[in-house]
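Take a specimen:
=====
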Amino acid sequence: MPCFGRTSDLQLLPILTVFLVAASSVDRKQNHTTVPTEGNTFLTVLEDTKAVLPCPPVPLTNAVVTTWKIMLRDKPPCIRAYRRERNETTEANCTDKRITWLYRPDQNAALQIDPVVITHDGLYRCDVVTPDGNFQHGYHLQVLVAPEVTLSQSKNRTVVCKAVAGKPAAWISWTPEGDCVPEHEYWGNGTVTVQSTCHWAESNVSTVSCSVFHEAGNWSLSIELEQGVQTPENLRIVCIILPISFILVIVGSIWLLKIIGCRKCKLKETELTPVEEDEMQPYESYTEKSNPLYDTTDRVLKTSQVLQS
């Protein structure tokens, strides 16, 4: 019986060994799967702040080479690398002094940007080479620029709200709503100026508010409308009366000129009629002198006068 028990224990030893080896291999695989081999993050950072970009969470003791590849717009890629066995760092095409290692790369391979400016939009990727494989993580960095918000009043109860040089473009709303016209102006650095011009014709609206919404924050400004500018009806009446008065003056002038012209024509006609009578008198005297009937009548009259005497 004792011999049988010993042989049973000896037979169990290989089984236990195989089990422990399998368990250890499973644990090793589980530890490796906790760290993803590749990942990407979309990151938004406010301008004039500090940004820290960590590498994949791999123990630095296992890292052989850690490399940052920085790809910015309209610039060649910047390469920053650290080789552990030599304890040395190398750089290529890295001219921006605001992008550096957070600490010593042998202690922490994270990258820092301090301060962040609008030209730091781009892709940042960390590659870590280990004996167990390669791990990488990328950051799509977008820089937010807070707009400068202004509110001003112009003529005729019209108010202008501006969100100047924001990135991305801001959105503007009004309380209460009015007759509004939006405008967008795009700049070369990627910022956008948004302007909204609103008019309120109703006299019962005394105060208006402009609300600006942006990923960097929200703003709300208010202003009182000037009551003294409420003269649209008077202006309309003046605009109607002035053209009518101008037309009446022109028509009256033409009528007056016609009357004066008619009077002059009548005066000329009256001056011409006596001349025609004078021209007729020589003809009458000629007819009287040359007509025998007139001579006979004269002789009869003279004879009758002599007989009477």
